[in-house]
Amino acid sequence: MRWLAVLLCACAALLGGCRRKSAAERVADRFVDLYYVEIDQRAALEITAGRAHDELGEQIAAVGRLRPGEGPRPHTYYEQVSHRIEGDAALFVYDLDTKMGSESGVKRHATIALARRDGRWKVVSFGEQEGKAPRAR
Questions:
Q1: What is the pLDDT of residue 32?
Q2: Has residue 115 got a pLDDT over 50?
Q3: 21-130 has which CATH code?
Q4: CB burial of residue 39 (10 Å; 0-12, 13-18, 19+)
Q5: Sheet with strand 120-130: strands edge to edge
Q6: For residues 52-71, average pLDDT
Q7: C-alpha distances in angstroms, 18 versus 8, 59, 81, 85, 98?
């Protein structure tokens, strides 16, 4: 399957749409996948530090025995709309569209802050607000 991804990336590169993601971007995308799409706070906890780690720990304790797979699950789609990496800090903004069944989606945007800790990128804070993220002019 890796060859297919390479082929698709090569085709997209010819059209100007493919770029190699930074390590910080891969971690931010993985966090969004785990937390918002897969709804797996325990797995997301592994790539967090500081305030984000504490907040997720509290969420896991509050949820207790309720886990994904019990009842209907929402489907979240996302798009990265901006990012900034400066030294050992990074900030990513994503538009989120969460749908439950055939209902119209709830539009939010998430801000994910990362810091390099012991040579590895970790999510150190995250939050969300209603509506799409403001676009740069």
A1: 97
A2: yes
A3: 3.10.450.50
A4: middle
A5: 75-86, 89-99, 106-117, 120-130
A6: 80
A7: 9, 36, 15, 19, 26
Report pTM: 0.80
pLDDT at 7 over 50: no
Rg of the chain in Å (alpha carbons): 16
Per-residue pLDDT tens over the stretch 84-111: 999 999 999 999 999 987 777 899 999 9
**Other Cβ atoms within 10 Å of 27 Cβ, number:** 22
Sign of CA dihedral 8, 98, 72, 124: positive
Strand-pair partners of 114: 90, 123
If 0-12 CB within 10 Å is exposed, 13-18 middle and 19+ buried, where does residue 65 land?
Answer: exposed
From 100, 116, 112, select the one nearest 55 (Cα to Cα).
112
